[in-house]
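Supplementary notes for students who missed Thursday's class. We covered one full example, reproduced here. Read the sequence, then the structure, then the short commentary at the end.
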Amino acid sequence: MMIVYNVTCNLDKPLAPTWLNWMFQEHIPEVMQSGCFLECKVLKLLTESEDNQGVNYAIQYTANSMEEYERYKQDFAPALQQKTKDKFGDQVLAFRSLLEVIN
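Structure (token representation):
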């Protein structure tokens, strides 16, 4: 059973280039170095709503099993999430969800 760990992030548009650079150069490589995920995709949300402020990105990490995700969540996520908070504080709001790949 393949699992997708989805992190949707909302941030102000002016911050996007700095944040994206940091994600690609530092954060995503560190997450992938955990060995818990097979691949990572970064997507930009194109749908806009009236109450939506800023810009939204979805970072999707694919794991081979629920066990691999749980290992990431326990052994790696707390420190990596803290690094993000230390760097960006409340400038980036993250919503995390877990999905099962059906097909």
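Commentary. The chain has one domain: 11-96. Helices lie at 16-32, 66-75, 77-88. If anything here is unclear, bring it to office hours.
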